[in-house]
Amino acid sequence: MLRVFLALEIPVIVVGTTTIIIQGANAQMEYLSMLLFTIWIFVTMILSVQSSSLVSGERSRQTLDVLLVTPLSGREIILEKVQGLRRLIWVISACFVTAYLFEVWWNGSVGHNSWFGYSRTRYLVGSVLSLLVYLPLVIWLSMWIGLKTKSQTRAILLSLATIAAWCLIPFGVFILFAELTGSEYTPILFLAPFAMIVVNELNDFPKYSNAMGTQAILEWVVVFVNYAWYGGWVLVFRGLSLRYADRYLGRRDEQWETRFPPQSTTSPYSENILAASSSQ
Q1: Are 201 and 36 in contact (CB under 8 A)?
Q2: How far is residue 191's CA from residue 110's CA, in Å, rounded to a whole number?
Q3: What does pTM read for this prediction?
Q4: What is the tens place of the pLDDT at every residue in 211-225?
Q5: How far is CA 180 from CA 3, 89, 177, 184, 185, in A?
Q6: 3 state SS of 250
């Protein structure tokens, strides 16, 4: 875990400080932004591979049956598996937050020379929301695919292909629409999860109005609607994974009830009291 942290944190610090040293007060953080995009791709691949392998890997190693004989429901098994990724998520988030705070500090201190010219509050809120929404989205989407797939290799490839298609197909439709009509229909672009990361990082929000007040309001609306939409997908994939966990794991309901019948919480002493009170 320490190696992952250093592999992500050191490039962020080196690129940020080197840019300031070389360019001085006119330093622009576009190189750090490009690095962040690269880290997002790398992190997405790591989380997707790890999540899709949590159950499919057990199947490939033929150790899933050992988990199924434990007195845990399918839902509890899945939650325990995902819980194991918490440390990785914290490490990844720490690296991203370092870069976000660095950009907010630098662009705020030399705002007139900033490449962004943005609202620091909106940028920071949008960046933090991307961690809170997109990281769980990758985990639960890949987990759901891994639950439905028997082969670990197939689960990994299918998860990565699904995420790539989800990001690239709307982007391709967006480019095609712009070429045919000569106008940019921005909502199509936001059907790709990565779009908000790029738009927020580059401050490339569409100029719906020349009035700064209206524009600022619309930027906040775009941010919250986008993350509410993808937050809903997180709940969908999480709900599917947990609701049908026993079925995906290959455990039938009657097997669960036979092995671990529900235990009565009523003691014999209380039953005698109830019987005596009913006879009176």
Answers
A1: yes
A2: 34
A3: 0.81
A4: 344 466 777 888 898
A5: 47, 41, 5, 10, 11
A6: coil
